[in-house]
Amino acid sequence: MTVLYPLSNLMGSGSLSGEQPGKQADDQSGKQVGDGAVTYWYEGICPQQGKLLQLPRTLEIEAIARHWMQELAGDRLYAQEGKMYGILLVETPSGELSVLKAFSGLLQGQSYVEGWVPPIAGRDRVALEEALTLEQLNAIKQEILTLEHLPERQQGFALSQQFEQRLQELALYHRQRKEDRQHQRQILMEILQGESLVAALEQLDDQSRRDGLERRRLKSQRDAVLEPLQHYIEQADIRMRELKRQRKTLSRQLQAQMHAAYSLTNFAGNSLSLQQLMPSGIPTGTGDCCAPKLLHYAATHALKPLAMAEFWWGPPSVTGDKVQGEFYGACGDRCQPLMGFLLSGLPSANLQVAPIDLSLSILYEDQWLIAVNKPTGLLSVPGRYSHSQDSVLSRLQHLKPDGNQLLAVHRLDQDTSGILLLARDQETHRQLSQQFEQRRVYKVYEAILAGLVTQAAGVIELPLWSDPGDRPYQKVDPRGKPSITRFQVLSQVGNLTRIEFIPETGRTHQLRVHAADLGGLGVAVWGDRLYGDPTTPHRLHLHARELKFRHPQTSQELHLKAATPF
Length: 566
Description:
- By secondary structure, the protein is an alpha+beta fold.
- It has helices at 7-11, 59-73, 127-148, 151-191, 194-261, 274-277, 290-300, 336-343, 392-399, 426-437, 510-516; strands at 5-6, 32-33, 36-45, 51-58, 83-91, 97-103, 263-265, 271-273, 304-313, 327-328, 352-355, 361-365, 369-374, 407-408, 417-423, 442-449, 457-461, 464-466, 474-476, 484-493, 496-503, 542-550, 557-561.
- The strands form 5 sheets. Strands 12, 13, 14, 15, 16, 17, 20, 21, 22 and 23 form a 10-stranded mixed beta sheet that branches. Strands 1-6-5-9-10 form a 5-stranded antiparallel beta sheet, with helices on both faces.
- The chain is extended, with a radius of gyration of 35 Å.
- The two termini are 63 Å apart.
């Protein structure tokens, strides 16, 4: 199957601008590649060298991609489903410039399509297990559908409605009879006396008893008819719940098998499974995107990547954030975490290689967990986009042999410094997270506020709510979640207040909002550009100073401290 297209055949003789297409400029400033300006960098940290590796998207590769768009536009089938497409400019061992093209997921229901890069190897090795599991899942689906649409459900609903209507009608009838009896009692008590009155009232009481008996008989009839049906439906519901549990288990097992077999290869000749590359969680579709398919194919066929571009074609995405003909970078959850590994091994002539700072101050470390003194300005975990990958977690992933197993137990804002806790295995992470959720972790923060606080100590209780249209901003709102912070003023100098915060809850931006809001202290944290002065040149003066918790494995109490840096 031909998937490699010589550039000269694709675009005509020569390059797009008459120069030498795809060749790296001698200037390693990262501003130009070949004859096209760089519009985006595909990048990731090399797991072996700890260096930032970058592959460009250039104006030249975008022009090549637009040539392919013209071909897609000529076939109405491509307009029926919206998806990402990718183009990779490569140099063959003979020095010829060629182009690879790929699609994400399936194309018109097919994973193998003539002329396109094939899917990454792995799925074939579990094809039999996949087929058997999918057959089981389909059988479970059909049984669930059968149980959901049992005739007895409709029959039970119809009979229940009928009895309910009869009971309502009977209740109205009996209510009218009761009112009539009450009226008759008043008349009888005015015109009769003695035994005649007693006998007449007894007749009315007997009517009341007969009405009650009539209601009970109808209810007994209803129960006799509906109870067998309800029991049958309850048994069906129990079976449905069991089937859904089986379906979930089978799906997870199949996914784990596929991720273990799904193997990626880089330009250093190293191969790792998705399970090894992303042990903390693998989003659906990982490995099926354009960028991994293109780079894996180039690495396994001795092709040197020079530039890459991905674009959307077809109807807009469901979320509306992808439109036809626009270029997009590596997706943050599925592709970006793989990029450093995939680009490893390429000669520096093909990549921009920039050293990065991996330094971290580790406060505590054992075989189960790590505590780091996070500096201000560093993310706790990587962000969604390529420019926000540097974080405590990503640095530890390169510093520690078991770095890929690490899981952040909680978060600190990017501009907040202080103690950050990470677990080295799932069970430790689960137990520590539980302690945080159950408010069994003692936390102390120190801050400087840009103003004077009149109250020496106290408690702030304000509900915090995140407006979906104004993230990450948090505000005090009755719709929000309850949040509690204890505070104590430590000192005041000039117009600044040094204060100690002890949060009892852990809401996003809790301390910053409790400080700035008029319902709290009414004085923002010094350097807070979001809730205070947006033009301040100072860092955020908020520091996670202490953390006390029960060690999940040894049961000893750990009291960690990080000196306040301001």
